Amino acid sequence: MVEAPSATTADLLPRTVLDRPGPKVAPDLLGCVLEHETADGLVAVVLTEVEAYDGQTDPASHAYRGRTARNAVMFGPAGYAYVYFTYGMHFCVNVVCMPAGTASAVLLRAGKVIAGEDLARRRRSVRSERDLARGPARLCQALGIDRRLDGADLCVPGSPLRLRAPLPAQVGVPPAGERGGGADAANRSGQKALIATGPRVGVREGADVPWRFWLDGEPTVSVYRPWVPRRR
DNA sequence: TTGATGATTCGCT
DNA sequence: GCGAATCATCAAT
Q1: Within 66-105 of chain A, which residues have Cβ less than 7 Å from strand C?
Q2: Pairing mode, if any, of strands A212-215 and A41-53?
Q3: Residue A183 CA to nucleotide C3 C1', Å?
Q4: Which of A61, A90, A117, A178 is deepest in the core (most CB within 10 A)?
Q5: What pairs with residue A106 in β-bridges?
Q6: Is the CB of A97 under 7 A from strand B?
Q7: CA distances from A214 to A3, A30, A37, A97 (A)
Q8: Model-level pTM?
Q9: Residue (of A188, A200, A171, A225) closest to A31 by Cα position
């Protein structure tokens, strides 16, 4: 009767890790694994690029102008998925941070597929493996994420959409001994070195804060584009 | 109601 | 490099 869960509680990222401001949480999400289980199968990616949005103090955040029907999940407790639809055709997924009442989130911008590659390829007609989840909308397409997952809990084993703690040697990061320097964060997870930061992609206001984080050297990281006004 | 815009991607030149 | 695709959302009528 009882089915064995695909993930145990110990594998998943503890909600307490997410119960902090987005800009603090964001770099810690690099190297974590996002997985989505559907009737078609499971696809999992290692996160290689993320962006923080700090709620009501951040003019680039969807939560800047207060709570609405769309962004309601961001005002809830940490550890849930905020999925939104944009440009008439794309979905993007965020990890909600901070306790209920405070809106803060991290946009998952890119990842490297480590499981279910066949299924991911079927969902995305694309030639190269690196482009499967290179970009926030591509990542959602590869994983089959849409608005039905808005509000999904990422921190419980029974959820279809889950966030796992970092696995060692999943991304092309050298062993700890060869990295030198700043060892604290690196040692904790085994692969937290080589994190680069810069301004967020495609935002008009708030382009001055370096709240985009990525694993330096990862080919799956999307390219930077500054904001440009759209022609009418 | 209406109108502008967007945390993007893809295809064509 | 440039423009189209395409529609939910929100601020302004």
Answers
A1: 68-71, 84-85, 87-89
A2: antiparallel
A3: 47
A4: A61
A5: A52, A95
A6: no
A7: 36, 7, 25, 18
A8: 0.89
A9: A171
Nucleotide nearest to A205 (CA to C1'): B7
Q: Token pair for residue A199? A: 């301004």
Residue A46: closest CA among A135, A107, A146, A115: A115
For residue A207, pLDDT over 50 is answered with: yes
Backbone angles phi, psi at A69, to 5 degrees: -60, -40
Dihedral angle sign, alpha carbons of residues A190, A186, A224, A108: positive
Residue in the structure block whose two tokens are 């290692």: A46
CA–C1' nearest nucleotide, residue A107: B7
What's the CA A62/C1' B4 distance, rounded, in angstroms? Answer: 17
Determine the distance between A231 (CA) and C1 (C1') in angstroms: 15
CA dihedral A74, A204, A87, A221 (to 10 degrees): -80
